[in-house]
Automatic annotation (TrEMBL):
<feature type="domain" description="Cyclic nucleotide-binding">
    <location>
        <begin position="29"/>
        <end position="114"/>
    </location>
</feature>
<dbReference type="InterPro" id="IPR014710">
    <property type="entry name" value="RmlC-like_jellyroll"/>
</dbReference>
<dbReference type="InterPro" id="IPR000595">
    <property type="entry name" value="cNMP-bd_dom"/>
</dbReference>
<protein>
    <submittedName>
        <fullName>Crp/Fnr family transcriptional regulator</fullName>
    </submittedName>
</protein>
<dbReference type="InterPro" id="IPR018490">
    <property type="entry name" value="cNMP-bd_dom_sf"/>
</dbReference>
<dbReference type="Pfam" id="PF00027">
    <property type="entry name" value="cNMP_binding"/>
</dbReference>
């Protein structure tokens, strides 16, 4: 849980009393490789912090999986459009490798916001970051060519790209795996 506490401290100060509250509100969970944290149709019931591991978000569009996002150690995982209004999710969240996570329910998150001195500020900063990431991704999807999206993927996920299967990277970029191979060849030939 120390990584979780340290990650929160990068955004807001925590007193020893705040840390004790956090330790009581979050619960540890081990997730197997390929196990889903969430499937479409389910309600997202937890905000999850990844201590160790890697997950991907994906949707089914036109009968095919479309990978939308990846999260790794030190990052938060949640389907906010399901979690906040408690409605069925349209996304899937799947562990790409064995993952250790800390989870907090919606009700316990409300307690976090009330009882941790800067809890609400932490929540606002987190949502602002999620909002900015989503807007950037949507703009890129509509304005960038696949080669540019791949370059952005490499910049955003340089530290985990080797841990992600190529077909998921191709799905994220919005191309078939063969097209991704051609894009990678063109980019590597420029150097």
């Amino acid at each position: 849980m120390d990584l979780l506490i340290e990650q929160i401290k990068t955004h807001v100060p925590l007193s020893p009393a705040d840390e004790k509250i956090i330790r009581n509100l979050f619960h540890k969970k081990k997730i197997r490789k390929d196990e889903h944290l969430l499937e479409a149709g389910q309600i997202c019931r937890h905000l999850t912090f990844i201590e160790e591991g890697l997950v991907r978000y994906y949707l089914f569009t036109n009968g095919e999986e479309q990978t939308n996002y990846f999260n790794k150690e030190g990052e938060w995982v949640c389907d906010y459009p399901s979690f906040i209004p408690k409605t069925p999710a349209t996304a899937y969240i799947q562990a790409l490798e064995p993952t250790t996570a800390w989870m907090i329910s919606y009700d316990d998150l409300q307690t976090f916001y009330k009882e941790v001195k800067y809890g609400e500020r932490f929540g606002r900063l987190g949502i602002e970051q999620v909002f900015n990431n989503i807007i950037r991704q949507v703009i890129s999807l509509y304005t960038d060519k696949p080669e540019v999206r791949y370059e952005k993927f490499i910049k955003a996920y340089f530290d985990i790209a080797q841990r992600i299967p190529q077909y998921y990277i191709a799905s994220y970029v919005g191309v078939k795996p063969q097209s991704l191979s051609r894009i990678r060849k063109r980019i590597s030939s420029q150097f």
